Amino acid sequence: MERAPLSFQIPEEVLSRALHAPPGAQIAYWSHDIYRGPNGEKVLVHYCKSKATVEQVAQLFLAEPVVGFDIEWAPYAKPNMGPKANTSLIQLACENRIALLHIALHKGEGVENLVAPSLKQILESPDIVKTGVSIGSDCTRLEESLKIKVKGRLELSHLHKLVKYRDTEPHLVNKQLVSLARQVEEHLALPLLKGGVRTSDWSRELTHEQVRYAATDAYAGYRLFDVLERKRLSMTPVPPKPHFVELGLPIDLGKTVPPRETKKSDRSVGGVDSSDMTSSDKTPNDAATTCSSNRPDIEVPIPDEFNQNVDKVQPTKASPDAGGSMPTLSPIKAPEVEQAEAWIAEYEASLSPPRTLRASRTQLRAYALWQFHGLSVREAAAVLRDPPLKESTVASYIMEAIRVEQLDFKKERLLEVYAMVPWQALGMYRTLMSRLK
Questions:
Q1: Are 195 and 274 found together in one domain?
Q2: pLDDT cut 90: percent of the chain above it
Q3: N or C end: fewer C-beta atoms under 10 angstroms in the chain?
Q4: Cα angle 429-425-1, degrees, rounded to a multiple of 5
Q5: Taking 60 as the threshold, does the pLDDT of residue 260 lie above it?
Q6: Is 196 inside any structural domain?
Q7: Where would I find the H helices in 10-155?
Q8: Do 292 and 353 fall within a single domain?
Q9: Neighbours of 124 (CB within 10 A)
Q10: pTM score, whole prediction
């Protein structure tokens, strides 16, 4: 199965500048505002301060099958401080628009004055998937403060681990959280900027920096789901999508895998991957920053907040969850493939237990054809399947085999392969490519 590609993407020249930008430059970081639609249009950001406007904008998301989801709250908020402090801002995102719903600025204090009907419908519908990191705790806070029981909660950490470890280290597929920043850098090609703005006061009118941060986090949830779903559907066999968090069910690997001894280095701390502890997304450990009052324009077609263009905004079409089919690899009798298979068997036999193959056999087969037989990516694609595989797919196979198995390569040839890797996956190979410098 293949997912239909999204129409909003990062322009190649923008991505190239970002990948070659010096560390610390704003252009080097991932954000919603670097995406463009087919006609160059930007992702719209709706900043809504009243219940009436929230209702108007929320209706634009009712037909979406998936929305990125996040919330923000006042620093050091406590239950007795009321819903405006505990759920100050709710963020929703789809492919071409993001809604920042500023509950803290609504008039009135009761829940009936703070929750627009269409927003409640979106959050309580199991048919609209809400995606995010640490989404379980966010929804618990939402339920306690606004009496909304969110359904259709998908934890991106579960999907990330399923895709990353199912075929290589299945014992690492668990429900421990992986930070949003880490997932963005690994799957969306660029790092996520995480500064002090995340611990600023979200109960007051937002600065431009807060708008950008909040919009980017929600959009990251949406884009990560798309990339991870694309990777899940390319696996063989395809594992089931992780269950909604509210169901409390284990992650289904979709096949029987032998148990492996857990090494000390594999252990985690406090329910969060130990490798991610330095980039936690929800822990307020940074000082708030002072933001410039010189705000660039924000595209917000809302009448009572900014302008009168809301009538021109049309609901977006729902992005298809999946469509089409992927051809299966058929047995190949070419001598090169038989020799590649022999090398894989030899390589696997050389591994000391409990070490097993981390790369898939398909990835190793592509690597062997490229490395030992000197085939180009295009030639390997033709040998591996008729009709040929996509060159970008074979390039990804080779890069992944080298990355997870620490295999040998020639610098000049690897650069040629790296240039063919889909941009969404480039971030996975930054460490590998740094070895070439």
A1: yes
A2: 52
A3: C
A4: 140
A5: no
A6: yes
A7: 12-20, 51-58, 83-86, 111-114, 117-124, 135-146
A8: no
A9: 13
A10: 0.65
State the DSSP string of 75-108. Answer: TT--GGG-HHHHS-EEEEE-SSEEEEE-GGGSSS
Q: Residue 9: what are its φ and ψ, rounded to 5°?
A: -140, 170
**Pairing assessment for the beta strands 129-132 and 97-101 based on DSSP bridges:** unpaired
DSSP β-ladder status, 66-72 and 89-93? antiparallel
Domains held by the chain: number: 2
Does any domain span residue 318?
no
Distance CA 367, CA 358 (A): 14
- Token duo for residue 311: 């009538």
Which of 66, 160, 145, 76 is CA-nearest to residue 110? Answer: 145
Check residue 248 and give its pLDDT.
93
Tens digits of per-residue pLDDT, 301-342?
433 333 333 433 334 444 444 334 334 443 434 788 888 888
Which is more confidently placed, 246 or 24?
Answer: 246
pLDDT score at 114: 95
Q: Which domain holds residue 97?
A: 12-312
pLDDT at position 287, please? 32
Query: Does 401 reside within a domain?
Result: yes
Tell me the HSE value of 62 on the side-chain side, using a 13 A CA sphere.
Answer: 15
Q: Could you tell me if 64 and 318 are in contact, meaning their C-beta atoms sit under 8 angstroms apart? A: yes
